[in-house]
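Supplementary Note 2. Why include the ligand at all?

Several targets in our set were suspected to adopt different conformations when bound, so apo predictions alone were not considered sufficient. For every target with a known small-molecule partner we therefore ran a joint prediction. The input for pyridoxal-5'-phosphate is given below.
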Amino acid sequence: MGRPATAKINLDALRHNYRIIQQLSARGTGNGQVMAVVKADAYGHGATACATALADIASGFAVAFIEEALELRAAGIKQPILLLEGFFEPSELEMIDQYRLDTVIHHQYQIDALVAHRPKHPVRLWLKMDSGMGRVGFAPDEYRKVWEQLNDLPFVKDIVLMSHFACADEPDSDHAQQQLTTFNTYTHGLPGERSFCNSAGLVALKEVQSEWNRPGLLLYGVSPFAQIHDIQQTIKPVMELSSAIISIKTIPAGSSVGYGSQWIARRTTRIGVVAIGYADGYPRHAANGTPVYINGCRVPLVGRVSMDMLTVDLTDLSDVQIGDRAILWGDDLPINEVAKGAGTIPYQLLCNLNRVPVLYHGILIPEQLDFDQMEI
Ligand SMILES: *Cc1c(COP(=O)(O)O)cnc(C)c1O
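The joint prediction is reproduced in token form.
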């Protein structure tokens, strides 16, 4: 069926990861509620499909902004949906009210708009403290005053106390600890549920006890840590990005491969061409040596990644043929390794996915359409 580049999305793996996260969240006094973060089209996995696949088990969903939330409501998602950036303009309040969305409040202009609008339905607000991320949120010493201001509003149902870690993925940093201390100090005595952890915080900071966690990356089976971490053994990658080899040829030592002739063969080399490139979201900056998984082995990327193709060194792999699958990331090749080779993070690779047909398997496919029989 045409070009062989494909992103396979395993929705059973997504559910597996959600359950692992629930177990992690249930430790301590937290009651294990998990807002599944499906912003940026579920990190490239398809927000509607992922939310639908989790609809019977997820406590709620978090997105960046209102258009992403409305897409989920249109797909029939009934759970709470949280706008992580809140709203940008007062005009959005009408829809927040109508579609019963939860919203982050991080700035006074949002409170002013809320007071002027007076929502018809009771609304749950997530009041954000800037405890050390230095991005959005109220300063710790003004937080309590703002909380009191919101608590006096008749249409405010609940106020979740919320903050966000800057360095939860860095095991050697005590920044997260400082943020936690700041948050606990300035919210001391305030009633209400708390929400702090993203994926890295949930795994690394066992001392954080909060009612709501907000994992994104971990849901998709990807470790948020730069170093190899045990969590990778427990979660399952949801996406497998692959394509096929469309050309194999042998070149003599001294000849070059790709744009800029930047890679030069040091020996007689068998070059395989894979039909995927940076227009599909494979990173153009992936360095020579970045692994590609073919027939059970890792082979090195060589030469610059082009728009629609990339090249690998197949010399040490004897039995490869045209048409064989090349896995760019997935179960057998953690996306973290590719991100490292490209000087970026897995988040960016997943969100940049483009132009590649997405194939779902797992719970959304009816029984009679068993995916394994449809294998392309
Ligand atoms: C994106 C986001 C998350 C999820 O982060 P991950 O590192 O993917 O788990 C959590 N909280 C907020 C406020 C976010 O913007």
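Residues 43 and 188 are 35 Å apart (CA to CA). Residues 37, 39, 84, 164, 198-200, 214-218, 224 surround pyridoxal-5'-phosphate (CB under 6 Å). Comparable summaries for the other entries are listed in the accompanying table.
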